[in-house]
Amino acid sequence: MNSKSYSLFLKDLKSELRTRYAINALAMFIIVAISVIMFSVGQEKISPGLTGGLFWVVIFFTAMSGLSRAFVSEEERGTTLALQLVASPTTVFSGKLIFNIILVFAMNTVIAVLYSALFNEFIIRNFLLFLTSFVFGNIGLAISSTIIAAIIAKAGAKGTLYPVLSFPILLPLILASVQLTLFAIDGISFESAKFELAIVVSYDVIMLTASYMLFDFIWKE
Amino acid sequence: MIWKIFLFLLLAFVSVAGISFPIVENPTKWYEFPLIPGLEENAKIIFFHVPTAWLTVIAFLMSTLYSFKYLRKKNLDDDLKSYASAQLGMIFCILATITGSVWAKFAWGSFWNWDPRETSIFALLLIYGAWFALRSSIESEEKRATLSAVYSMIAFVTVPFFIFIMPRIMTGLHPGSADDSNAGPVVNFKMNGNMLLIFFLSLIGFTILYFWMWRIGYKSILLKDKLDKKLIRG
Questions:
Q1: Cα(B203)–Cα(B11) distance, rounded to whole angstroms?
Q2: Residue pLDDT, tens place only, B62-96
Q3: Sequential DSSP letters for A38-55
Q4: Which residues of B47-83 are buried (b: 16+ CB within 10 A; e: fewer)?
Q5: Nearest by CB: B165 against A148, A199, A210
Q6: Which residues in A79-105 are b (16+ Cβ under 10 Å) and which e?
């Protein structure tokens, strides 16, 4: 974590703002996913618990559509070697991670706002719990999807394999986050949700450590 | 050769004994199994289902161990060993899923119930399905070895979370679950001496079988590589 990784992040941000590839893909995917759910629900009355689960379905598939860009774009442009020359693996990973965290937060905030506007049943009773789980869940999502994106960029099949590889890694996080969202909808106190919160936080810490340790191997390949 | 005959005799005995020994209420003769309330005749699956699940764990652990070794030493043999072991793990994982699922139909009424153990074996199937998909997408040997080793390390660190999160989300139906009230911890209390003996003999037999199959699998991959290289050179 130094000024180099920050400038790498700025570089990614600038090139993203120029092409707006990931942002456009993500924005369209959010709309597509939410409208698919709305069409399939139709006039049915759905329970608040179900909306909490569907919320994470939208988040997962949206993340899978846009987050692999971080490393795939470098491979496509052929700039990987240049990056390897100017920066250490840790720096590269930090820069990409910051970019993905910001992207995930932007994406999920849009999803949350749209979702609560469109689904009347999606009422959060314990907002603080929802916000905490949302923040830690987003960080975990960003970390895991960044390291899997690095693997995918080096492997041949770029688009199709990404959700396949990410799902088992993200599954514990998604299970815990769905549970926390249900708690927040039911208005359960912080005290009784602390076990799930601890799982999400330790998932973040362990995945972050493992990613930094393993990224060297991927990057030098 | 001798230990192959020994293994054959052991597994033959376990199969015959496991299937044919009767279950009675008060076992008096040496070949009679005790009746476990809530399981009855269904209890016999323990001789075949539990060893396959056990081998799934062993095979995947070995695969991860050799992946780790590969990352440290960069020796391609370790990658092949890891691959051969994961192949076996996948076979036993599918076997454990199918036998468990058939058993669940008779014991719990449906093939799939999202019990914590069913969910964990499903997660294992997903992880290794993805792992094989990743391997088949990469041409270069070293790249394939490194990337799949990294992936199995990442998947390995997520496994403990499943153990913690699962009992909170779903209730355990499986015999031996912490909150299982009717059948209880089967292995510890309800099995009598001969049942335990055959159970452990079965575990030992299947474990030897695994190591034997692993060696054959590893050798066959080596031979295949050699043949491929010969064909390419002409």
A1: 10
A2: 999 999 999 999 999 999 999 999 999 999 999 99
A3: HHHHTT----HHHHHHHH
A4: bbbbbbbbbbebbbebbbbbbbbbbeeeeeebbbbbb
A5: A199
A6: ebeebeeebebbbbbbbbbbbbbebbb
- CB atoms under 10 Å from CB of B112, counted, come to 14
Is the pLDDT assigned to residue B138 strictly greater than 80? Answer: yes
Q: Domain limits of chain A?
A: 3-220
Instruction: Look at B146 and A221 and tell me if their CB atoms are within 8 Å.
Output: yes
Cα–Cα distance, A197 to A190 (Å, whole number): 9
Within 8 A of B126 by CB-CB distance, chain A residues are 167-168, 171
**Closest Cα to residue B153, out of A162, A206, A55, A177?**
A206
CA pair distance A88, A4, nearest whole angstrom: 10
- Asked if the Cβ–Cβ distance from A176 to B161 is below 8 Å, we say yes
> How near does any CA of chain B get to the CA of A215, in Å?
8
Whether residue B143 and residue A221 make contact (CB cut-off 8 A), yes or no, is: yes
Q: Do B147 and A154 touch (CB under 8 A)?
A: yes
CA B30 to chain centre: 29
pLDDT bracket for residue B154 (50, 70, 90): very high
Model confidence band, residue B38 (pLDDT cutoffs 50, 70, 90)? low
Tell me how far apart the alpha carbons of residues A142 and A197 are, in angstroms, rounded to a whole number.
17
Mean pLDDT on B204-228? 92
The per-type count for chain A, helices as H runs and strands as E runs, is 9, 0
| Torsion angle of C-alpha atoms A7, A12, A15, A16, degrees rounded to 10 | -140
| Nearest in space to A156 (alpha carbons), one of A70, A76, A62, A85 | A76
B82 with B119: CB under 8 angstroms?
no
Q: Is B149 in the A-facing interface, judged by CB distances under 8 Å?
A: yes
Q: How far apart are CA B228 and CA B226, in angstroms?
A: 5
Which H or E element spans position A141?
helix A127-154
Give percent helix, percent strand, percent coil of chain A, each to the nearest 5: 85, 0, 15
DSSP B127-164: HHHHHHHHHHT--SHHHHHHHHHHHHHHHHHHHHHHHH
